[in-house]
Amino acid sequence: MLKQKSRYGMSVPLPDPLDDHKEVFRELVDLGYTDVWSSEANETDGLTPLALAAAWAPELRLGTAILPAFTRGPALLAQSAAAMACAAPNNFVLGIGTSSDVIVERWNGIPFENPYLKVRDTIRFLRKALTGEKITEEFETFNISGFRLARVPENQPPILLAALREGMLRLAGREADGAIINWLSANDVERVAGIVNNEGPNKEIVARIFVCPSDKKDLVLEGGKFAMAAYLN
């Protein structure tokens, strides 16, 4: 059985202009939502909507689901996470993942190589960097020489890893504070949570659920097929 306390979040940004999101965030709080989670593909970056939420609705827990481990350098990723952790003390969760070759290589011109090792190394680097430790280390996928974070958050944010396959789920259990999962049925969630927690107890599981409020079944199915095809390719 899953013992994690349930929280209910919304993916942001919504279609409204960003400067209208103050009212959106306040409404989410009033409706009982506890979290907002951003992503980073070809819309907004993953942090600006959360920075606005930190100012406009500090009750909300903020998370990235996800920031690609490839598209920011390790030091910049640490700075970004630290800034959000300072803006929303004890209320920010850093979710990272491999993303995809489309986003990383085709859109950002960065080689999409050794994704498993890249996220593992990035988590290990962030664990040290977010404490203010000076880092000079050769990781398998990058080298760091003399980096120290100048603005260290009072409390280090939890780090979650996006995972679907068993190897990445196990990595999330060993190295991260939990896993972010996607494209799973409700029955699948408990099964994959078990894989994560077998590697380390009391891990957080964040599941993105797609909801299509419509009575037009064919339209919903077509939209679902399009979304899945884009994700798989």
TrEMBL record:
<dbReference type="InterPro" id="IPR022526">
    <property type="entry name" value="F420_Rv3093c"/>
</dbReference>
<dbReference type="InterPro" id="IPR011251">
    <property type="entry name" value="Luciferase-like_dom"/>
</dbReference>
<protein>
    <recommendedName>
        <fullName>Luciferase-like domain-containing protein</fullName>
    </recommendedName>
</protein>
<dbReference type="GO" id="GO:0016705">
    <property type="term" value="F:oxidoreductase activity, acting on paired donors, with incorporation or reduction of molecular oxygen"/>
</dbReference>
<keyword id="KW-0560">Oxidoreductase</keyword>
<dbReference type="Pfam" id="PF00296">
    <property type="entry name" value="Bac_luciferase"/>
</dbReference>
<feature type="domain" description="Luciferase-like">
    <location>
        <begin position="16"/>
        <end position="218"/>
    </location>
</feature>
<dbReference type="InterPro" id="IPR050564">
    <property type="entry name" value="F420-G6PD/mer"/>
</dbReference>
<dbReference type="InterPro" id="IPR036661">
    <property type="entry name" value="Luciferase-like_sf"/>
</dbReference>
